[in-house]
Design a protein that fits this description.
alpha+beta; four-stranded antiparallel β-sheet; globular
């Protein structure tokens, strides 16, 4: 659902929500209905953490601890900056906990990031980026350029 350009997750939109205690995450962007996401990837990262925790790959308390550490390590003094970039920290914490728990190595994460970068560069403008494009030897036309 989109409201004023914001992608939102409404708890009532889901028949069986299994959201953890979000009160432990004081700075999570939210409205009266629950978490609010500016971009689709933020909702995906949020859902992935909730799913991994619900499947016992890590506890919610472990997640909160790592996320808080990630935000503290950023050494940010302005709360508005933290809120505006909250899901960047969320994503970094997700990479960290996956590495710590042996779900993914930092090498695997870096390799996949590079795959997605190549996929983006190999995708024509206006087309959705698919990971398979990373492995295509696309001959780009001179006008097919992306900024990174």
């Amino acid at each position: 659902m989109s409201i004023y350009g914001k992608i939102t997750l409404k708890i009532q939109d889901h028949k069986n929500p299994q959201l953890p205690n979000l009160d432990e995450l004081a700075m999570i962007p939210r409205d009266d209905s629950g978490p609010v996401f500016s971009e689709p990837w933020e909702a995906s990262a949020f859902a992935l953490v909730v799913q991994l925790s619900s499947e016992n790959y890590f506890t919610w308390q472990e997640w909160v601890k790592i996320l808080v550490e990630e935000i503290k390590e950023a050494n940010l003094s302005e709360n508005s900056y933290i809120r505006d970039h909250y899901y960047i920290h969320w994503l970094r914490a997700l990479e960290r906990i996956c590495n710590d728990k042996g779900l993914l190595s930092s090498t695997e994460i870096t390799t996949r990031e590079e795959d997605w970068r190549r996929a983006y560069l190999n995708t024509e403008h206006g087309k959705p980026v698919a990971l398979e494009a990373a492995f295509n030897n696309m001959q780009s036309s001179p006008d097919h350029k992306h900024e990174l």
